[in-house]
Amino acid sequence: MAITSLVPLKPGRSLMDWIRLTKSGKDMAGLKGRLIEVTEDELAKHNKKEDCWICIRGFVYNVTPYMEYHPGGEDELMKAAGTDGTDLFDQVHRWVNYESMLKECLVGRMAAKLIAAPKEITSVSEEKKHLNGMLPEKKVLGASSKDLTPSYDWFQTDSLIAIVIYTKQKDMNAELVILDCEDKRLRGEIIVDGYSYLLEVDLDQAIQEDMAVNIAEKVGKVEIILKKKDKVHWKILGQPLENHNTFMKRTDRGLFYRKCKLVSKTEVTHDTKLFCLLLPKSTHLRVPTGQHVYLKQIIAGTEVVKPYTPVLPFLPLDFQEPSGHDNAYIYLMIKIYSCGLFTQALDHLQIGDYISVSNPEGSFKKSQVQTSEDLFLLAAGTGFTPMVKLLNFALTEVSCLRTVKLIFFNRTEDDILWRNQLEQLALKDERFEVQFILSQPIRDWVGKQGMISSSLLSEFVKRSRKDSKVLICICGPAPFTEQGVQYLKDLGYSQEEVHPFIA
Length: 503
Hints:
Elements: H1 15-22, E1 36-38, H2 40-45, E2 47-48, E3 51-56, E4 59-62, H3 74-78, H4 86-93, H5 98-101, E5 106-110, H6 124-129, E6 151-156, E7 160-166, E8 177-182, E9 185-192, E10 195-203, E11 207-216, E12 221-228, E13 238-240, E14 246-249, E15 257-267, E16 272-278, E17 283-284, E18 293-299, E19 302-308, E20 310-311, H7 325-328, E21 329-335, H8 341-347, E22 354-358, H9 367-370, E23 374-380, H10 385-397, E24 403-410, H11 419-428, E25 432-438, E26 448-449, H12 454-460, E27 470-475, H13 478-490, E28 498-500
């Protein structure tokens, strides 16, 4: 997985400065307000720093004025100069709302290539006639995947609607089912091995807020139970929406957000707070261990999005996940930066305010832990957040683990998150050890000091046995993660043994 480092920006080149520039009336696209159709040949001509166009999902942007404002640096943007940069963008910044950030830089659309339509494509009107049943041929990924394509059906009683999705996957669980309903608009997404099956319908009649999701794990059947608001007979489930009954790669599916209410904000350290967000009643969402969500805010008229990894409300010392906490709430541990546009806006939210939260994303799989004997967690600052659920999962559900070690890097003692809880956990379970390392300790600090280095990692990251299976997870600022991955490689650890958390 590629790690994109942030580069220092010149003074006056912050996100807020960019937003101000886009609202200044300056001709950012260089076309005096016109939109043009761009051919591939024309796009290819604009491939220099002083004249750089990039295509993202069929739209062409003049990113020349954005060069100095890009947190990843000019070189990253230049990788896509004069070309279709959609794939590169999705690898690094899929969550960024480029339409909002670059709207003043829009040059126009790419010229369409004429291709013959496949004979087997069904018309939209024909598809709408068959709201339930098997997936239309055009939505299937390919011949090899036809047998794996989910399908669904629906049934009703006087008071209930039951939608049954046949995923054709064993080991289906609640984390793989995401359900939202707002104003009769039902959206159900099933995650199947990196693919996404979507059921999206404007329901025929109104339903009550509370819904139930039942999962037959062994056969992969998902049952969604809706309560009718009025006991009337439904002639149809509803009208299919644009992406209804589609099955595609998860990365090709746009991010979906729902509004969550801020119900509490608790101080963790002098600059870090624990935010508790309440999911809507009509949402079923579980954030898997090691995955993150995106928060979206409108700041100065521009959509700004940032990734955060949910944590537990506390570290359970009895090694049980707090009962039902994840069903209704999402907990986020967020450092508030004095000059941070996004975190300052977050900190100014009042209890009862709403913020948009996306579906979970991330490449981490629990199976990586379940086959390990030694687990090492390298965290710097709020890079600790993905380790919280991972730590709890490892100590409660993975019996083959012999050692679990957290190596936690911070500047000072005051910056250490949940220090007392971590020390208590180390006393409770002999498999767990925590090592605090400070880069700017005060004089009476008796622990380790320094920054991540090859010598430091060789001291603390050691297999319990010569041939033991090891997993090393690392998260922190991009330079920390980048250096750590390289040091571990130099120490002989394979790519499969190292998982960097990157959003």
